[in-house]
Amino acid sequence: MHIAETAVPGAYVVTPAPHTDERGDFFEGLRTDLLEAAVGRPFVPRQINYSTSRRNTLRGIHGVAIPPGQAKYVTCVRGALRDVVVDLRVGSPTFGAYTTTVLDAASGRAVYIPEGVGHGFLTLTDDACICYVLSSVYIPGTQIDINPLDADLALPWGFTEPPLMSRKDATAPGVREAVSTGLLASWQEATRGTHSSASRKALS
Q1: What is the pLDDT of residue 195?
Q2: What ranges make up the beta strands (E) of 54-182?
Q3: Which residues are the active-site residues?
Q4: Domains of the chain
C-alpha cells in the first residue's frame, strides 16, 4: 500500500495495491505497522463503526475532544463518498486547511484522521456505507460538531442540490464560535507524542 500525507499535517491517504485474478481481487485494507511508521505514533483500534446513507447525505464535521481524543481510519465499503478532513487544531500552522478524497468500495482507498482534526463526508451514491476504525471508544459528551456549511471554512462539498443533514449538524456552531468557546483542542494537545521525523514518511 501507498501512504501519503495530505495538506492537513498528520492526515494521510492510504491507497492499497490490489492483487487481481479471474476470481476477483484481494488487498490489505489496514496495516498498523506501516500506518504507525508513517504517522509517527501508535494506532490501536478500540472500536469499529459503520454508517449507511442515501445519496447526497452530508455528515459532519465531527471530532472528539482531547481528552480522550480519537484518531480515525475511514474507508467506504459500499458505494462512494466525498471525504473531507479539516484542520481544527487551534494554533496549527494550517488551521482551517482541508483535503478532499473520493472514497469508494472499488478502490479500497482509506483516510487516516489524527486527533484534533475534523471529518465529514458527502455520499455520492445511494446505500453508501462507511467504516470507521477508531482509536478510542465512544464516550458520551466528548463529541465535537462543527457546521459543515460554515462560510469561514468554505469546504468544497460539491453538491448540486441541498444535502440531507441531521438537525444536530445543521445547527452546529461555526469554527469561530467553536474557537471562542474553547471547544477545540490546541495544536500542542493534538500532536503531543507524535514523532515529527517519521510523520512525513510516505510508504509504498
Answers
A1: 54
A2: 58-64, 72-78, 80-87, 98-104, 110-113, 117-123, 128-134, 143-145
A3: 62, 132
A4: 2-191 (2.60.120.10)
